[in-house]
Structures are given as structure tokens and as C-alpha cells.
Amino acid sequence: MTHLSILREVFGYDAFRGPQQAIIDHVSAGGDALVLMPTGGGKSLCYQVPAIARQRAGHGVSVVVSPLIALMHDQVGALHEAGVEAAFLNSTLSGEEAAQVEQRLRRGEITLLYAAPERVTTPRFLAQLDSLHERGQLALFAIDEAHCVSQWGHDFRPEYRQLTVLHERYAGVPRIALTATADALTRADIVERLQLEDAQQFVSSFDRPNIRYTIVEKKDATTQLLRFIEGEHAGEAGVVYCQSRRKVEDIAQTLADAGLNALPYHAGLHAAVRQRHQDRFLREDGIVMVATIAFGMGIDKPDVRFVAHVDMPKNIEGYYQETGRAGRDGLPADAWMAYGLQDVVNQRRMIDESPAGEDFKQVMVGKLDALLALAEATDCRRVRLLGYFGEVYGSQPSAAGPPQGGHGPLGGQRGHEVPSVGATCGNCDNCLNPPEVWDGTEAARKLLSTVYRVQQQSGISFGAGHIIDILRGKQTDKVAQFGHASLSTFGLGAALGEAQLRGVLRQLIATGALAVNPQAFNTLQLTEASRAVLRGEVPVMLRESVSAPAGRRTRRDRSAPKAPAAVAAALGAEAQARFEALRAWRAEVAREHNLPAYVIFHDATLAAIAALAPQTLDDLQGVSGIGASKLEKYGAQVLQVCGGEV
Ligand code: ADP
Ligand code: ZN
Questions:
Q1: Residues enclosing ligand 1, CB less than 6 A?
Q2: Does residue 283 surpass a pLDDT of 80?
Q3: Which residue among 200, 385, 449, 458 is the one 20 to 30 A from 210 at the CA level?
Q4: More confident residue, 561 or 458
């Protein structure tokens, strides 16, 4: 049986997406793979189809390692709906339930077993795997959320480090590691930590074309947020990310007071409350979850219409992962962030105050800078985001391996990996509504030449504060100590405020025309790219809203066209009625099965059915999302709901 026929029969989809087919063929034939694919790209099928194929070929069970304990129940439920034998083992099971699963495992009744990493590496579990292995009944290891193995990722789980035991103990069993995090450093770390040197790497495009990126200057974040949700996403499901528990509580309260269906979620809440809120978010329509980053990893709710950040995340990986939770279903969705200078200060302080070693802090500072550059960009956000992951917008990366050379934040030339200058996506704030910019070229030249002169004169480099003091003509102790008042640029920037100069500075750092050396007290250093700016060959354009000289008004226009609200918008009146009836039916079934509605059928599937007005089971055959098992289970009911014959 081919993999394509498994896809059609079991999952009801007619074609593989992107590199799915190549990955599945490779793994199914016994190869190791590292899969980098954005959220919503379809990673699950990359191990589920090989698991089914290998099971049918007599190779036994596939073990899926996942940190997402809270979601295993739904994942297994979704497989059951598709008629696949699956089970999970984690701390939520009673001893008796776990023993039952183990028994089924021994009897070879399970195709996919989901397990938490700490469970997989226990002697008891390994002994079971040993026995399966001896009988040739260990088909595959899938390591989901593989970035958890890396401390450079944003969800480091020390237990993941122990997973090398799988390779060492069961060398012949193929492994597939999957993640949606793809910066070069994390990727290299995954390969090393999981000993995947010989695995084939499959790198997809990370673009999420249906997500619209917007970053606004923070004034009153809560009010701005409320306006955004009410204006563009009334009644729709979304996630609002905050840095602190307190802010989560405050904002959830404010939104609830304004009549929104908002719930808080953070690690300080009781586990039972957290679980209840998560369940409601997954099962009900139109809930806004206000959360810390404790919420969301692996949330596979497909119809999240927006992800908002009222505080800046730590780095682009985090931002991309979090915003990626919007619009998994491929329909229009928003990624909205309010960003202010205070965010920069807070994040810097958190790095400074962390007990981590200098090397680690240096990496963190570099990553933060890259995010700042994104926030302040006046050009296409998407081009920059993808550039950060080593991808040139509009060009497909090779499926065979990572992009060559020093891409990513540690490539040694931050800011240079955005080669598609001038490219536009047409679906981010800067493309839709180009920001007003002011010409900071002169200020930039003065700044760079000051950096140059102090180094010439004193033989050492200085940090941003001192350079700005010199430009503003301030008589500080340090200025006196080093005699910097005699420099020709002393006081040359007095007309500009400190904020403007910092804006120039950040922009220079962002574009790589100036480097911060974290190993030498964050001193500023000229780079190759400085020269062109110094000579005035490269204009430095600054976002007016962030760094406008005092007195100039900033433009605040958020009149970008609104995304069409629902998947059913294109349906005629009768089909709309069928769609609503199907949704109501689905909600009931989901409640009965204690599963999220989308596990039964996606909105898109219901919309397709509604448009079709099916009369017979034959009509339903071939609708995307209806596999053999669901057709048998629900076909008759669906026809009835649609008013057809049974
Ligand atoms: P990821 O884990 O990469 O975030 P998922 O595996 O959850 O993504 O897949 C995202 C959505 O896309 C799911 O709803 C899934 O059913 C759907 N999907 C995946 N592959 C296909 C395909 N080949 N055809 C149609 N839908 C697909
Ligand atoms: Zn754009």
C-alpha cells in the first residue's frame, strides 16, 4: 500500500504538502530525518504515515516523544477518530490505566504510542522497548518539538538530553526529529545533542503567507489591544501574550470587563484551572486566552485568528513560534505586537541579571538585537523574519539541507542576511501601509565618526552611552578623563535628543553598520558596512513613530483592510445554513467524545460539505478531511444534517 493511499484512506486528504512525501518515503524506508517545518506545515503526518506504513509491514509500534502532556489526550483522540490505534503514557494516567496501555503495547495492538520524555528514559519503559526490539517490533522513534533539546531553543527540557539513549540502544530503529524552530544555532544543537549527524535534513520554507504581521508603537498597550481585537477580531479566538503573571491577570480582567470572552493562563494558576481554561479555549468558539509563554506549545487549534504580544518576546524564534499559532488552517490571521523602549530595557536587564555565563548572555543579546531590528524595520517584516532564518523571501530553500554559510543570528554578520532588499510581501503593516520615515543619514555619519575618533584617540572602544554623551556635548567625568571634549564631533548632535540618537544607534546595529561587542562591555565597533554609511552612500531611514525628533507628529493609521472573517464567508445563504447546522452537530459530537471540535472535522471540511449539499455517501467521498473511518462513523449523520437521504 502506498503512502498516498494511506493519506487518502486514513486522513481523507488527496495530496501531500510540500516535502511531506519525500520525508515519509525516507523515514518509512528506515532512514533518519530532521524536519524543520513551520507551525501548521503538517509535521504530524510526517511520522504518522510512516508509523502506519511500518506497522502494516510488520515492524510494530512507533514511539512519539513529546513534551505536550496536556495535549496527548486530544492527539490520540484525533488518531482514534481516523481509525488508527494509538495510546499515550504520561503522568496523567493512573497506574492501572498505564498497565493497560503496556499490555496493549506488548500484544502489538498499538500503532502510535505517545510518551513524555521523562517516561521514555525510565528503566521500566526501556525494558519494555528492549523486549519489543528483540522481537523486531519497534518501528520508529519520532521526537516532536525537538528544539526542546537545545538550550538555545526557547523551551529547553533537560529530559530531552537523555534521548540519545534511543539511538545508542536501538541503533537500527529509524528516528525522525521535528521542530518549527529553525535558527542555525538551535538546528546544529539538535543534530549534535540527538546524534543526528547522519540524518537527512528537510528544511521547508518558513513563510506563513496567511499571517499578517503588524508591530505598533506601544502607548497604552491595553487600550491598543482592545481596539485591535474589537476592530478586527470580534468574537474570534485569539491568544494575547504577556511577560508577567500580573499583567496576564490585569489584561484578562480588562478584556472581560469589555465584554470579551477572555481567560487568564499562567504558571501561577492552579493546574486544574489551567487545564480548564485550555480545554475551554480548545473546545469553545471565540475565546481569547491571555497568557504567559507557558501557554501554547503544541496547541494545534487550527482556527486561532490572532496572536497579540503586549510585551516583546525574548527573540525572533519565540516571536515566530508564538505568532505561528495563528491561522494554522491557512485562513487569514493576524500577528500583532505593541513594542516600546521599555521592552528593550526590560529584556536587556533580564539578560544582565540572569545567572547564565557570559557566552550564553552574548548569544541572548545578539538574538534580542535581531528582534529589535525587526520591530524598528521600515521595510517588509516578512522579508526580515525569513531572512533571520536564512531564507530569501520568494525563493524556496532546498529540501536537502540547511542553507550554507553563516546564516542566522550567529552568522557573524547580523543584518546582512537580508539580501532581498526592496522585496515586499503585501501582507504586513509596512507593506500595506508604509511608515513615514525620517532621514537619519547625517546623524548616523556623526555617530560612526565619533566611534571611529574615540578609538583612534584613546586606543580603546566605548559603549553607546558615552558615544551619545560626546555627540550631545555633555561634560561627563568620562569625557573629561579621556579628553573627548576635544573631538571634532563633540556636541555635533546636540540638536537631536537622546532618544533620536539611540534610534539611529539601534538602526545602525540592526543593519550591521555598527557592532556591539558583548565580550568587551558592550562597546561599539565599526564594521565592514560602516564605511558606506560614513561616506554617505547608504541612507539611514528611521521609523518616524519610534524615533521622531520632538515636535513631529507620528502617523497612526491602522486602516489596513480587514481579513475576511470566517471560512464560510464565500458560501451562499443555503450553504451557510447547512454550515451552521453542521457546526452545531459537530459541537455535540465533540462534547460526547470529549474532544475539540476540530478533531471531528475542520471548519474547512464542514464548509466544503455545506457547499456540496451531498445527497449520498458517495458524494462525501473525496471531500478533504473525510477519511474512511470518519465516512463510516459520521457519513450518515452528516447527510441527515444536510437534509439528504440516508
Ligand atoms: P504542525 O504540527 O506542523 O504544526 P499539523 O501536523 O498540526 O502541523 O498540521 C496542520 C494542519 O494541516 C492539520 O490540521 C492537518 O490536518 C493539516 N494537513 C497536514 N498535511 C495535510 C495535507 N497533506 N493535506 C491537507 N491537510 C493537511
Ligand atoms: Zn511585507
A1: 13, 16-17, 20, 37, 39-45, 300, 302, 328
A2: yes
A3: 200
A4: 458
Of 156, 174, 203, which one is at a domain's C-terminal end? 203
Q: Which of 323 and 412 is assigned the larger pLDDT?
A: 323
pLDDT of residue 152 exceeding 90, the answer is: no
Largest CA distance in the chain: 92
Relative to the alpha carbon of 324, which ligand is closest? 1
Ligand nearest to the CA of 49: 1
Confidence tier at 571 by pLDDT (50, 70, 90): confident
Q: Whose CA is nearest to atom 18 of ligand 1?
A: 42
> Is 548 inside any structural domain?
no
**Same domain, residue pair 340 and 486:** no
As a whole number of angstroms, the distance between CA 100 and CA 91 comes to: 14
Instruction: Write down the pLDDT at residue 544.
Output: 66
Question: What are 303-346's pLDDT values in tens digits?
Answer: 899 999 999 998 998 899 899 999 988 889 999 999 876 677 67
From the DSSP assignment, how many helices (H) and strands (E) are in the chain?
28, 17
Same domain, 338 and 453: no
Out of 203, 219, 247, pick the residue that ends a domain: 203
Tally of domains in the chain: 4
Identify which of 20, 44, 320, 624 to mutate to test ligand 1's pocket (most ligand atoms within 8 A of the CB): 44
Ligand nearest to the CA of 300: 1
Which residues lie below 8 Å from residue 255, measured CB to CB, with a gap of 6+?
225, 226, 229, 240, 262, 288, 290
Question: Is residue 359 domain-shared with residue 236, that is, in the same domain?
Answer: yes
Please give the distance, rounded to the nearest whole angstrom, from the Cα atom of residue 179 to the centre of ligand 2.
25
* Contacts for 79 with CB less than 8 Å, ≥ 6 apart: 48, 85, 86, 111, 112
CA 385 to ligand 2 centroid distance, Å: 10
Burial 141-161 (b: 16+ CB within 10 A, else e): bbbbbbbbbbbbbbbebebbb
Q: Residue 298 pLDDT more than 70?
A: no
Same domain, 408 and 474: no
**Nearest ligand, measured from the Cα of 560:** 2
Whether the Cβ atoms of residue 189 and residue 150 lie closer than 8 Å to each other: yes
State the Cα–Cα distance between residues 584 and 146, nearest whole angstrom.
37
Closest CA to 137 of 161, 111, 168: 111
Alpha carbons 287 and 306: distance in angstroms, whole number: 11
* Nearest atom (ligand 1) to Cα of 302: 14
What is the pLDDT confidence band of residue 573, given thresholds at 50, 70 and 90? confident
How much distance in Å is there from the Cα of 589 to the middle of ligand 1? Answer: 22
Residue 423 CA to ligand 2 center (angstroms) comes to 8
b or e along 216-240 (b: 16 or more beta carbons within 10 Å of the residue's beta carbon)? bbbeebbebbbebbeebbeebbbbb
Q: What is the pLDDT of residues 167-224, one digit of tens each?
A: 999 999 999 999 987 677 888 999 999 999 999 999 888 899 999 999 998 889 999 9
| pLDDT value of residue 154 | 66
Give distance in angstroms: CA of 51 to centre of ligand 1: 16
Same-domain status, 65 and 182: yes
Atom of ligand 1 nearest to the CA of 15: 23
